[in-house]
Amino acid sequence: MRSNATRLALVGAATVTAVGVGRAVTRRRRRHQPQREDGWYVVRRAVTVDRPVAAVISFWTERERLDRALAEWATLEQIDGNRWRCVSRDPDTGATEWRAEITVTGPGRLRWQVTGGPEQQGTVELVPAPQGRGTEIRAELRYRSGPLRRALGLAAGDEPDLRLRDTLRRVKSLIECGQLIDTRRDPSGRSPAQERRTDEIRQRLTTGGRA
Amino acid sequence: MKALCWEGVGKLKVRDVPEPRVRAAGDIIVRVRASSVCGSDLHLINGFIPAMREGDILGHEFTGEVVEVGPGVRRLAVGDRVVVGSVVACGGCWYCRTEQYSLCDNSNPQPVFAEKLWGHSPAGIVGYSHAAGGYSGSHAEYVRVPFGDVGAFKVPDGVPDDAVVFASDAMPTGWMAADFCGLTGGEVVAVWGAGGVGQMAARAAQLLGAERVIMVDRLPERLAVAADRLGVETVNYADTDVLEALREMTAGRGPDACIDAVGMESHDVGPGYAYDKAKQTARLQTDRPTCVRQAIMAARKGGTVSIVGVYAGLVDKFPLGAAMNKALVLRMGQMHAQRYIPMLLDRLAAGEIDPGYLATHPLPLDQGARGYEIFEKKEDGCLRTVLHPA
Ligand SMILES: NC(=O)c1ccc[n+]([C@@H]2O[C@H](COP(=O)([O-])OP(=O)(O)OC[C@H]3O[C@@H](n4cnc5c(N)ncnc54)[C@H](O)[C@@H]3O)[C@@H](O)[C@H]2O)c1
Ligand SMILES: [Zn+2]
Ligand SMILES: [Zn+2]
């Protein structure tokens, strides 16, 4: 793997992952307790992308494509050779939600740490899948969640585990077919109020209502 | 624009709805010229497939003209006449790349329900509830087709709308049913259900080498049409013991392959039916499996049971012992439209398959609700109602 390419690639994958779950960590809903290790909650999820590791990497190294993929989620700046800063924005208001620092730790591996936000860190690893089935993107997320934060903003679908799965699914779709399917604003005979209720159901069918 | 919307169990209404727009680079917008009803819609309308919402536009078997293309579309242009597969497929995942389009990983944006019910989510389907992606259906003046290059196919000149429309769903489903049977020539194939899907399965089985095809249904008009159009033998289960008849017709062997083209609203005569219906109504079983039970009992030892009739959840009294001890092959699935459509269009143009006779009831879109009533009650020899928006 060319080191620079690898770096950018992993940064991209991690950013999407971090952004996707970051919001969830702040507003998570406590339904069941994930595994705990050394005082952290730990969630591990993986997805298989039907492209070789090199292709997964080159997807993320194309800056323009990456920016498009991240569009309404985050911006990414390089700090130095191995470190990147990711700023997550609220897609509705555009306000900064939190910042993360991403560090490349080895070939096919990186780590991120949220700074000035909910306590969160994680790793992403790219591993070739057996039988030539492409690449396994394996993500691990560790977070702490204080009692106060737990009590606030408990929107459905914000379980970090579910959000992580949803995010990995998005990454997979972007790489495999270049887009995320969205049927939300397709025509229907619904009134605005009925449409809002349907959107809640869509949300639950997208990220899951419970863990 | 006008569209036929679901308004609750058993209720349909034509409403004014906004027109669809191109939303992604691969999208196309199709002006619908013909949009057929399908047996699957009955499962949706009657509330047996979950996650339907008031205002959902029905319809997934359609043909029309491309009126707008997204910037990423390569194979199609405005003005092309196309037929579109019911199943939405991304073209880029492992399943699509191995032509198992109805198992596409990326075309159901709302996969949670399927994942919980079935372990994994198959592809999204146009006009087929929010559990299958929440796509707006084709019983409308216009419809958005995602991944246009993958799912829409140019129609050969001279093939009328009311024939090519079935290349969207009934033909590929029937073809896949016969394909599952692994025919090598000379087999006896039995098909349960003489609807559009069953009739197309019967024709496909003939083209793939079956020597005899036997169709099972209770509607004499449908059986008569099948006998007349396709030259199949028929068994009417209303007045005949199906297992006995099939055994006799095959000199004791049983059919080499049995196709279920009926699905979860299977009807039957006798007390077993009342039992299944009661259990389904009480949601103790979600599906009525009469016909698949029969297919398993009827199949010869080592034969194949091919299921394209749709099931959603749990069934009761499934004769697994018969299937196991007779070493049956069970194949099933939603159809891989995109795999079969190009070949089927060639066969259509060559006159090898002529599905036009299925369009017994062409009607304007405005009369969509009535069209479904005619179809559901099989009034007046109805095989399929085909709706025309303009
Ligand atoms: N797998 C797929 O991709 C796919 C695609 C399209 C349709 N389908 C399914 O195929 C099935 C048939 O569709 P269709 O459009 O032909 O429906 P249809 O309603 O026109 O036909 C069903 C036929 O089955 C007959 N029938 C009912 N109970 C029976 C029994 N016990 N034995 C024999 N026949 C019986 C009915 O009399 C009717 O003629 C449906 O379940 C539909 O959902 C599946
Ligand atoms: Zn159908
Ligand atoms: Zn796919």
UniProtKB/TrEMBL annotation, chain A:
Gene3D superfamilies: 3.30.530.20. SUPFAM superfamilies: Bet v1-like. Residues 182-211 are annotated as: Disordered. InterPro entries: START-like_dom_sf (IPR023393). It comes from the Bacteria. Residues 182-203 have a biased composition (Basic and acidic residues). This is Cyclase.
From TrEMBL, chain B:
Its cofactor is Zn(2+). Pfam families: ADH_N, ADH_zinc_N. The keyword Heme does not apply. GO terms for molecular function: oxidoreductase activity; zinc ion binding. It comes from the Bacteria. The keyword DNA-binding does not apply. Keywords: Metal-binding, Oxidoreductase, Zinc. Residues 8-308 form the Enoyl reductase (ER) domain. SUPFAM superfamilies: GroES-like, NAD(P)-binding Rossmann-fold domains. PROSITE patterns: ADH_ZINC (PS00059). Gene3D superfamilies: Medium-chain alcohol dehydrogenases, catalytic domain (3.90.180.10), NAD(P)-binding Rossmann-like Domain (3.40.50.720). Belongs to the zinc-containing alcohol dehydrogenase family. PANTHER family: DEHYDROGENASE, ZINC-CONTAINING, PUTATIVE (AFU_ORTHOLOGUE AFUA_2G02810)-RELATED (PTHR42813:SF2), ZINC-TYPE ALCOHOL DEHYDROGENASE-LIKE (PTHR42813). This is Glutathione-dependent formaldehyde dehydrogenase. It comes from Verrucosispora sioxanthis. The lineage of its organism: Bacteria, Bacillati, Actinomycetota, Actinomycetes, Micromonosporales.
